Amino acid sequence: MPYAQQENPIKQQSSSEYIKAIHKKLKDRNPGESEFLQATWEVFDSLQPVFEQHPEYVEQGILERISEPERFIAFRVTWEDDAGNVHVNRGYRVQFNSTLGPFKGGLRFHPSLTASVVKFLGFEQIFKNALTGLPIGGGKGGSDFDPKGKSDREIMRFCQSFMTELTRHIGPDIDVPAGDIGVGKREIGYMFGQYKRLRNASEAGVFTGKNPDNGGSLIRKEATGYGTVYFVEEMLKEQGHSFKGSKVIVSGSGNVSIYAMEKAIEFGATVVACSDSEGFIYDPEGIDVETVKQLKEVDRKRIYHYLETHPNAQYGNDKSDIWKIQCDIALPCATQNEIDRESAQAMVENLVKAVGEGANMPCTEEAVRVLTHNGVLFAPAKAANAGGVAVSAMEMSQNSMRYSWTAEEVDEKLLQVMKNIYKTCTETASQYGAPGNLIVGANIAGFKKVADAMVSHGLN
Q1: Residue 238 sits in the same domain as residue 330
Q2: Among 172, 221, 256, 408, fewest CB within 10 Å belongs to which?
Q3: 298 lies in a domain?
Q4: Mind listing the pLDDT tens digit for each residue in 73-115?
Q5: Active-site residue, from 104, 119, 128, 140
């Protein structure tokens, strides 16, 4: 048979076999990248009914194309500390999929950052961004640099060196980074300043998460935490529950965690525990979120200092023990894979009603199975924490218009986006035979939006 007429054997398999074959190819091509492979399988595992209804996705190789980045950039970042010592870190940017718009996703500065973590975050970002309904593609990046314990000038020098390379790969209509773990207004400011210096142009739309006095959007810092609570509240209402009167645990103590706590308290909940990378605090009277803000946003101190002003609180050295505390609602907002099977089982035994993922992929595959098989309401990250990127896209719009919305306007738009995402996820889950399964709903809805656009664009 002539080559042009040969059939692709993978495409002749059943949908289930086809998905497994493509993921096996992905494993062979990306050995050792456990986080990336975990994230891709979590999506792939939901897609069997999609391929049964849409053979054109198979014909055009959508699954293979969507799981391969358009571009992966790795580079050396050389900087000098205050004592004159030279240090070298690795910088990354994955430009995963631009089908719906310019690449959009945060920059993370953390010593645990690897190529695998960057790719998992970028892959998740494709579908999260699609769910917002806004015209943005998926990307992610960062460095294994650790800003903790560094002076402002050391952080500035690192950010300037990082941006000297990254500047050539980004732009308001190409790739628009934002903040993530270890990257806040300070770091964004330093990087944006270097970008302007190198480009000799004031392109405010190239970064989001900027200071509101310098082109940033109001509510951006709060958006991911607020959005997580808005989404979870919609999920709870569907089952006759609410944050009001509930006992809540929130892991982490960064922007996502702090503002998830703030909004949960505003909704009538009592937040009894939060954590940082060294341990956790438990305050049965309710965490004072203003104290946590002071410690983390102003003083930059560890969470155990909370006990200095709240002596009735307790401190635990093992941050994973936070999940052994009884609660009605758990919001993991720290980092990936922080809830394992054992922690999930402890939560089930303590009769947790709902889990909302404020961080990216904070539950392992085993933990998700334990929670969902025991009837726990589960809000997956790509839907529940999409509020941050939604407001980032709003910041891009405001920069394009040379205009700023009020905090109330942005918050109202954020609330509506999260309600729309919840509605999309529930309707899609029902349409594809998995009513109530928000994991399936989010994965399929996000995938279909990008896949349909990729089909219409042809092979690229």
Answers
A1: yes
A2: 408
A3: yes
A4: 999 999 999 999 999 999 999 999 999 999 999 999 999 999 9
A5: 140
